[in-house]
Amino acid sequence: MQQQTGPLGGPLVVDGTEALVRDRLEERLCVVGDLWFPTRAEMRRWGESPAPLYLRWTRTGGFEIGPRLETIPASRLVPTLRGRVSRTSDGRVAVQARMTWPRVTWYVLIGFIVSLVGWGGWVGWQFSQGETHLGWVLTWAVSTLIVLGGTAVAWRVGRRQLLSELPWLHGVLTSPMVEGEDW
C-alpha cells in the first residue's frame, strides 16, 4: 500500500511510475518555466489556474513547488519545495523535497546581502575617517533592516501559505493512480 509521509516528513512513497507522478503534478498544478522571466502565456495561465500551487521543473530533472500567490512576482519571494521524483528499490516512486528559496531568489538575496555588507563597510570606514555623516550610516542601517526584515516576513508568510497547501498536494500525489485513466 502507500507509505504515509509527506514532502517535509521524509519521502512520500506512492505506487505508479515516475512518468505518471510527473503527469499528475503537471495536470493539477500551475506549470511555469521561470518565475523571474515568465512568458505571457505563463502569466495568463497563472491568473486563470485554480491550483493553489505552482510547479517548475528544474534543469537537473527536479522540481520546485510553491504557493501560487496573487502574482508571479509575489511568489518569487516565498519558499518552495525543491525536490525529485525517483524510483525506489521496491519499484515504487518516492517524492522527496525540502523547503528552500527558489534558486534565482537565492542569487538575488545573496547579491543584496553582499552589496549591503560592502556598502556597510565602506560607510563605516568613511564615517570613522570623518569623511561622511551619520545620515549615511542610518541610511545603510535602515536599508539593511528593510532587506533582512522583508526577507524574514516573506519567508514566514510564504512558509505558512505553502504548509497550508501540503495536505492538498499530498492528496494529489496519493490518490490511486491508474495509468490511462482520468482521475
Describe the fold and architecture.
It is a single chain. The protein has helices at residues 18-28, 40-48, 72-76, 103-128, 134-174, and strands at 12-14, 30-31, 53-57, 63-67, 80-87, 93-100. Strands 1-6-5-4-3-2 form a 6-stranded mixed beta sheet, with helices on both faces. The chain is elongated and about 70 Å long. The protein is α+β, with helices and mostly antiparallel strands and 183 residues long. Helix 4 (103-128) runs antiparallel to helix 5 (134-174). Helix content is 50%, strand content 17%. It contains 5 helices and 6 strands, in the order E-H-E-H-E-E-H-E-E-H-H. The longest helix has 41 residues, at 134-174.
Helix share of residues? 40-55%
In one word, what is the shape? elongated
Major beta sheet, strand line-up: 1-6-5-4-3-2
What low-confidence regions span 5 or more consecutive residues with pLDDT below 50? none
Radius of gyration: 21 Å
Total of DSSP H or I helical runs spanning 4+ residues: 5
DSSP E strands, number: 6
Give the overall average pLDDT: 89
The biggest beta sheet reads: 6 strands, mixed
- SSE ordering: EHEHEEHEEHH
Strand content: 15-25%
